[in-house]
Amino acid sequence: xxxxxxxxxxKDSGVEWxxxxxxxxxxxxxxxxFQTIGSGTTPPSKEHExxxxxxIPWITTSELRENTVVETKKCVTSEAMQKFSALKIFPAGxxxxxxxxxxxGRLGLLGIPATTNQACCVLSGERxxxxxxLFYWLMASRAAIAALFSEGxxxxxxxxxxxxxxxxxxxxxxxxxxxxxxxxxxxxRIDALIQKKTRFIELLKEKxxxxxxxxxxxxxxxxxxxKDSGVEWxxxxxxHWEVARIKRLASLRNERRNDAPTNxxxxxxxxxxxxxxxxxxxNGSSRQSENSTVGIFYxxxxxxxKLRPYLRKAIVSEMAGCCSTEFLILRAKKIEPKWLxxxxxxxxxxxxxxxxxxxxxxxRADWWHIGSIEAVYPDQYEQAQILATLDRxxxRIDALIxxxEHSITLLKERRSAFITAAVTGQIDLRGEQ
Length: 433
Known about the structure:
The chain is an alpha+beta fold. It has helices at 30-33, 78-83, 131-149, 160-164, 173-218, 246-249, 337-345, 347-354, 367-371, 380-423; strands at 10-12, 20-22, 26-29, 34-38, 56-59, 67-69, 74-76, 95-98, 107-110, 115-116, 120-126, 167-170, 226-228, 236-238, 242-245, 250-253, 256-258, 266-267, 293-297, 302-305, 314-316, 321-323, 327-332, 374-377. The protein folds into three domains: 26-170, DNA methylase specificity domains (Adenine-n6-DNA-methyltransferase TaqI, Chain A, domain 2, Alpha-Beta Complex), CATH 3.90.220; 172-219 and 378-427, Orthogonal Bundle (Helix Hairpins); 223-377, Alpha-Beta Complex (Adenine-n6-DNA-methyltransferase TaqI, Chain A, domain 2). The protein has ten helices and 24 strands.
């Protein structure tokens, strides 16, 4: 942002939490800046006649992601619009703001005429506040608004009155439009870079997995003699490798304890990166189980997430500790723990495990099914050679992934800082084309 200059002069905004703004800017109240400020409601979800065959898009806060909403998961019927007077159709170009809970302050511009649930506040019919400018201003002010004006404990809320009473320091409408257009252009450019780097990370992860899968199913020697494994989905394997069910190669630990000691490391599902097996603690290293049963693991055990959404989470422990009971704790016997981990994370094995998951709401894999799945392996000396080679090769890929992820973080920070600087008048965008 160094190429942009500040405005010639500043003044106090008159709004304590905002501070200084350019001298020419005026405070505009949201209530006076829009013709309509409204919300919607939720027809009873079990009464399908309000949704089945509906053609009127119905927006919930889950669809507000600082984006333009062009489609919705649900639509409501014309009969619902007549039955529930709180439902109103807002025109395309309106701005929706989430008022409740974890999504408080999330934003969406309506790309289509739509109605909403009661958790969305919608502004339409702009007068002297450019709606795109306000979109960016609210994005920059989200944290402050939630901190200063929300009510409630675990689920803080704001309401329409709070939004309507906000004072927005802003320039004249033409300059607001210039700022909004510049932000559209610059954020689109940054978003395109983020998208490219995200795709690069995806390709690196695919390459990493392909490398591991080939190594633990075919080995490293391209000239080795092969044989039929006798398992259709595994295919051919090196001639000297063994094939055995996982239950012959590992055992299940069932040690449980209530309320682990305060100095014990705790690992939850959220602390393990899917696919890579990397330990990325959220607050797991210091978090304690809260009045719950935990599993006990030891150095060298393999923790495997048994909930179907987390089947790609497996980690080799490097210490003793406790973990969520949604992990299966496995002790390798005839194979290296790392070999067991990598085998469990291969896509074909994941598919085999997934097919045996049971349960309606939260399907889980069980040891009986996992233990019945075949694994292939060489002797432990060759396992160690292969795993050491994989460590070197995946470390290079992981370093590239880390650099790309850091670059994305910096781009997001730059995007956020640029938006904030533009809509608060820290930089002068007049004259931008």
